[in-house]
Amino acid sequence: MLTTRLSEFRKEIKSYLDKVTQSFETLIINCGKDTGLVIISLEEYNSLKSTQHELSSRINQKRLDESIEALKSGKKLLKKLVNSLN
Question: Measured between alpha carbons, how far is residue 70 from residues 9, 63, 64, 73 in Å?
Answer without folding.
Answer: 46, 10, 10, 5
